[in-house]
Amino acid sequence: MIRRAMVLAAGRGTRLAPLTDTTPKPLVPVAGRPFLEHILAFLRAGGIEEVVMNLHHLGQRIADHVGDGSRFGLAVRYSREDPILDTGGGIKYAEPLLRGEPFVVLNGDSLLEVRLRDVIAAHEARGEIATMAVRPDPDAARFGLVEVDAGGRVRRISGRPPAAEGDPPLRGFMFPGLHIFEPAIFGWMQAGGVFSVTRVTYPALLAADVAVNAWVTTARWVNIDTPASLAAADTELRDRPFRF
Coil, helix or strand for 17? Predict the structure, then answer.
């Protein structure tokens, strides 16, 4: 059973400014408590025991709030970035805290209403280097289209690698920021780099024909990256709290 996770919490949250000038985005209140607390509850319910958070903008505020994680039933450690390294660079930089075991990664500004144990079970059953949760969305292309074949294998992300003659028909989904990696993923990441895991690491895997599993869900999803989405998430979780 997977027991480690990483929460990507280093971002500046510029689209929520001026709110995020003084409050790091993961600590913005949603339905009466910091959004990060919803994420930690999700991880705890999914059997996660150890959490790594990368920090940059107002990172000490996050560390002060969460501490060692014990009051959330977790053991939390921190990977402090200066400069900020983007998603892929941040994951690679945290390798000393994550190596040796498979681990979950999720964004610090979005959350799916799924049973994490189900995603983990699917990942373990397929045995691939990575599993991406994906969901249908009419605006999927706006998030970076994830194209999946009939066998549930990811074949293309944001048009990469380019389509070739004879490729099977694919279905398009959006990526809601939840995925699982085997420790071998670090071999596909350049140390010291600033790069996106979806724009760099995944396309490299797909171009090399390394299998990446898609876990398809129609579950509710909220994110807080803009004032409008923050207001919608607050209303959604007040009216119908997520159940994990």
Answer: coil
